[in-house]
Amino acid sequence: MYSSYNNVPLSATFNRVHMSSLLLSHCTCTCLNETRPLEIFPPTCVLKVDDSLRWSVMDETRFLWGHPLHVCSNHNETWSSDCEVYRMRCFCSEDTEECKTKKYKHVHVDYYGECRDIPKCSDEEMEDFPRRMREWLFNIMKDLAQRAELDDRYLELEQEAERDLAKKWANAVIWKFCDLDSHPFDRSVSRHELFPIRAPLLAMEHCIAPFLDKCDADDDHRIALKEWGLCLGLEE
Question: Per mean pLDDT, which range of 48-52, 59-63, 188-192 is the poorest?
Fold first, then answer.
């Protein structure tokens, strides 16, 4: 089966997303503000007492598959990097002269890659998407375990899924839910916490955004484990 992005096989698409997520995790952007931390994720802006606004960027220009890692903002504008987006947000949140326009006070990364027209997800594609997601989650969990990169807390889940195919999908779904539930750990996944799977994937898999929206069945901007499981096609 192929994704909608340049006829790339689905497995290659998801592997690319997995690798891009690993690369992005090494970017650290810090906004130093004397009054309050900015609620930005990712990267994280943290509070450090200081008498001026400062911006610290590590590895500001990153590359993926030999190309600069551009991003598309929520204003449908292409930026050279995610750090550039959040640097501008920090400037505008503090009304500094570096702020280009007030609309950037709430700017954030919508997805990775240059801005493009995102096609509508058809009913047929949406119906099949949970199966494809389950397959991807299991393959990623298995791959991380084989490379000794899976957190020790989840190794038992992966090994059980390998031994008992009846638990293959359920264990992968539970692993990813726990992996996403981190900022904060509260047994639910927020829109911010969905960023690591939504943003790298959207330009290549146009169904990911409506699919994740659908997972929030009660529209409270948080996805509980039960909602996550049902959304991915597991039985109660």
Answer: 48-52
